[in-house]
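Structure first, sequence second, as always.
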């Protein structure tokens, strides 16, 4: 009910502007854009309603961008990705902004479970937004999701060269190396990730997996117990608990 009331309030406010004779060009569109985007995380449904009403009053591409991002945070990543890609085709004045939109489309495709579309969008984004390691890291995740682990490593090499303090890049490269059966390289990378962020449960989870594959069950257990201390009720914690339980299963003769 509270969310519905918020949506109605936004719609009626914008409608009031129109009825009172305020022309679309008299609206402060940069201010409306900032307001709308600020709402996308906290109130994505309200942000979408606001963007839809604002677009009718001349919000144009800015309103469409806010609507698409609201869909992303509102749990509809595929719809968001498609709208973002359509919007990116219309943007010609600012290559950096076009690249930002395509990077968001790539993230949305990843959340939608479509790494092939994600890789394509992120490749276009990289061409427009050079020296942006976070976009390269996203493409590495898309490639890893398609089992292109060497391609993921290649991207993560670039990201680490650009920002050697990015713990996520080392963590993801450790995972890619693990899938390539390069456990020594994976160990070196996950140790670096943990040095950069000693409270990252995902890094401890990965570290335990690498120890387990290397035959060191005791250290694997220690790493997963740390995960349970940091993230006892989250998805990462549940995975660590399941890994410990599997390791503890004794096969009866």
């Amino acid at each position: 009910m509270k969310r519905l009331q918020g949506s109605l309030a936004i719609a009626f406010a914008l409608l009031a502007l129109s009825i009172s004779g305020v022309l679309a060009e008299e609206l402060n569109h940069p201010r409306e854009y900032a307001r709308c985007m600020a709402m996308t995380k906290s109130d994505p449904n309200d942000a979408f309603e606001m963007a839809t009403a604002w677009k009718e009053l001349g919000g144009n591409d800015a309103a469409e961008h806010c609507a698409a991002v609201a869909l992303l945070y509102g749990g509809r990543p595929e719809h968001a990705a498609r709208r973002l890609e359509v919007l990116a085709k219309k943007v010609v004045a600012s290559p950096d902004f076009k690249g930002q939109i395509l990077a968001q489309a790539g993230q949305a495709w990843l959340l939608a479970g479509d790494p092939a579309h994600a890789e394509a969008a992120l490749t276009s984004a990289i061409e427009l937004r050079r020296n942006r390691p976070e976009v390269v890291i996203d493409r590495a995740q898309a490639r890893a999701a398609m089992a292109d682990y060497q391609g993921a490593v290649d991207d993560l090499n670039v990201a680490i060269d650009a920002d050697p303090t990015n713990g996520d890049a080392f963590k993801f490269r450790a995972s890619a190396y693990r899938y390539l059966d390069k456990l020594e390289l994976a160990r070196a990378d996950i140790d670096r990730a943990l040095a950069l962020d000693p409270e990252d449960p995902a890094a401890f989870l990965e570290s335990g997996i690498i120890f387990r594959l290397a035959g060191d069950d005791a250290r694997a257990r220690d790493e997963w117990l740390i995960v349970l201390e940091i993230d006892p009720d989250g998805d990462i914690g549940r995975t660590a608990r399941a890994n410990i339980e599997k390791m503890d299963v004794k096969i009866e003769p």
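Margin note: Residues 44-73 form the longest helix (30 residues).
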